Amino acid sequence: MKRYLPLFASAAICAALPVSAQDAKTYPAPSEIVAAAKADEWVAIAPSDLLVMDLAPDSKGKPRRVVIQLIPAPFSQGWVSNIRKLAAAHWWDGTSINRVQDNYVVQWGDATEKKSLPAGLAVVPESEYVTQIGKGFDLKNFLPNFLAAFPDYAKKFPEVAEIDSKEFEIQLKRRMESTADPYAKGNRNLGGWPTGGNYENGTFWPTHCYAMVGVGRNLSPDTGTGAELYAVIGHAPRHLDRNIALVGRVIEGIEHMSSLPRGTGALGFYEKEEERVPILSVRLGNEAKDVPAFEYLSTDSDSFAAYADARANRRDPFFNIPAGGADICNIPVPIRRKAN
Amino acid sequence: MKRYLPLFASAAICAALPVSAQDAKTYPAPSEIVAAAKADEWVAIAPSDLLVMDLAPDSKGKPRRVVIQLIPAPFSQGWVSNIRKLAAAHWWDGTSINRVQDNYVVQWGDATEKKSLPAGLAVVPESEYVTQIGKGFDLKNFLPNFLAAFPDYAKKFPEVAEIDSKEFEIQLKRRMESTADPYAKGNRNLGGWPTGGNYENGTFWPTHCYAMVGVGRNLSPDTGTGAELYAVIGHAPRHLDRNIALVGRVIEGIEHMSSLPRGTGALGFYEKEEERVPILSVRLGNEAKDVPAFEYLSTDSDSFAAYADARANRRDPFFNIPAGGADICNIPVPIRRKAN
């Protein structure tokens, strides 16, 4: 049986439609599409998947809270598990932001490099930089694993389980050829996160978009414990994909990090103790106080597909020429505080 | 006569070479390639092509200077000419930075929107968002115009003038298919600047990379005078390409803008007068005091080609998996103060 495979049908990258100035007025902006999304297209983020970091107040005494969403399975769970242990041990309390490199990253952790780590942290191998899901073009092997890895996707498109092998391979190849992202032929927003994928060998990985949080490390084969973390504050450094573990994203308060003074040392490290920004506490969301509920727009929803298309082909009145494409980091997943 | 056309030979995007860990140690990092470039591969930037903006000192009394390089012909010269007039009239003195939107732009100009503009500013049409060079696949029409528009290129590759029409078309098409940038099939660094290009219709344009400076405008068909300017401080907003005029790039001091507090009003505008950052003066580089000499690495140089390849395929020891590609904004043109 041949049918169109939704695995690739909701591609984020669509051809630009030629539109007249008259037509353009009828197209909603991406933000309007998101605002009009139905309540059941939003997915609640569990408080236990949040990492809440309180920095010392700013020079005017204003509190500075940064909220990070930890990445769910099937990605980077070895490091995420370490991070949960570090937060439970209150390990980051009294550490600091030590590095702010313009157009690159903000990095935090123990500036003394002498603080003992809690017991029981895993040493995670480099192989975990990607998630292996089946063997790509072998449908029988790939599909059950893929659907198990992304259950929301399976719920949205139950018919995908009926696809036949030949059509699957044809559509996979078409998808890989048609993508517009230079860094990952199989890129898409999947399970609520920006991902790259190589369908040929069945590997998937999260991508280094703005505000993504990763694990600092030394030279290979060290992959870092998760105690030293960074957030992207510039143009997506996609060359880091598959070379460093990504463990989450800042969903609120990125401005408390991106607007910090840039470090004047090598790689943007602060040179003096007084430049470092003290971290008062880091807690999991279910342990922190006064944490609002957050939700993200399901990347398997119709509204997300319309939003992604509108990001790639701006037709709202300000624009004269739609780009006709967008890289994955220019289609950020909408995230908001949940209305009461 | 068939020969390989250098117009496309020095493509920034090259296939990743599989390398062993042993080999990797012998590959220099992009920064090492730039440091080893020969003196004659660097191109001096004329002081008259600089726009020097002095902001009010920061809270610790430190001076804040932002140096912008104006874009040369064949791009955006209508607006650049207006900007030269505005600087000569000292028009920006006493204006301010009025908008800082996280992961997007910093914008400056007259917050009152009442200050009179100097006489003689041109009204530049939308057609100037792109530069028309010949008619693309028609070689006889295209090539002389292209070489006239980018004279450094013509000097570097004199043999390009001998290319034959059929081969030209074949190579143009190959180039357009092989590029890895989603926003511009003909993208490349050209004449020292990141550009997109549609070789089929012969149009070229500068691209919205980090630190690029553009002309604020209202709804189409208004294209802005150049009095209201912005700089990109986040992931490249490439959907703005061909929809807004780009007139330069910040080459020093971007951190004085990117680290400013984010505005809390709509679109990141500051809501209170005291939040705005005063602009003390803006002068052309030949009128400003204490301006160092700057130079950029010729994008037609061998060192630039090696640098671009290394940016797309990181093989220095930190990296395990080279990306195999890079978007144009991840291959920033190296710019530095000229050694005395």
Can you summarize this structure?
With 340 residues, chain A is α+β, with helices and mostly antiparallel strands.
Q: Can you describe what's shown?
A:
The structure is a homodimer of 340-residue chains. Chain A has helices at residues 6-9, 21-24, 30-35, 77-88, 139-149, 151-156, 165-178, 255-258, 302-312, and strands spanning 42-45, 50-55, 64-70, 96-100, 105-109, 131-132, 188-190, 193-198, 203-206, 212-215, 229-232, 246-252, 277-284, 294-297, 335-337. In chain A, the strands form three sheets. The first copy, chain A, has an eight-stranded antiparallel β-barrel with strand order 2-3-12-10-11-5-4-13. Chain A has a single domain, classed as Cyclophilin-like (Cyclophilin, Beta Barrel), CATH 2.40.100. The radius of gyration of chain A is 21 Å and the shape is globular. Chain A is 21% helix and 21% strand. Chain A is built from nine helices and 15 strands. With 340 residues, the first copy, chain A, is an alpha+beta fold. The interface between A and B is large, with 49 and 48 residues.
Choose one word for the global shape of chain A: globular
Distance between the termini of chain A: 46 Å
Portion of residues in beta strands of chain A equals 15-25%
Could you say how many structural domains of chain A there are in total? 1
Average pLDDT rating of chain A = 86
CATH architecture of chain A: Beta Barrel
